[in-house]
């Protein structure tokens, strides 16, 4: 926070500048992850942060992986909030092709299928490709990607294939013409 304050003082009079504060979670200090995507036991002065947001001469672009962790009082002081979701399938497939080229690995139908089942796969493709290469796995190995997606989902992958159940198709009462008297 002191570095951010110093940057504001140095760049403010010059004009024409903006700052990027990546991983807003770093501002939290000694906080610990709580349930969901929020943090508990915040340290530091919220008043100081609020005042800085209200008076900063240089615009700051803040990024976070846990929007729920940003206090409502801070969000109210933001000029604009943009929440980015997971990329659509078409973008995820382009990412897969680009990462495969960059990392000198092959793509596989299994990875495409995992993207279809779990869209967050797109967020771990580069790490999965590097892990496959470093582990000496088949270039098209799905193991690292599945492992990372399971971690993001707390151990569960979506059910796929004949065991999949569409709860909207489930009916608890038999049709009237099939009921016994």
UniProtKB/TrEMBL annotation:
<dbReference type="GO" id="GO:0016887">
    <property type="term" value="F:ATP hydrolysis activity"/>
</dbReference>
<dbReference type="InterPro" id="IPR003960">
    <property type="entry name" value="ATPase_AAA_CS"/>
</dbReference>
<dbReference type="GO" id="GO:0005524">
    <property type="term" value="F:ATP binding"/>
</dbReference>
<protein>
    <recommendedName>
        <fullName>ATPase family protein associated with various cellular activities (AAA)</fullName>
    </recommendedName>
</protein>
<dbReference type="InterPro" id="IPR027417">
    <property type="entry name" value="P-loop_NTPase"/>
</dbReference>
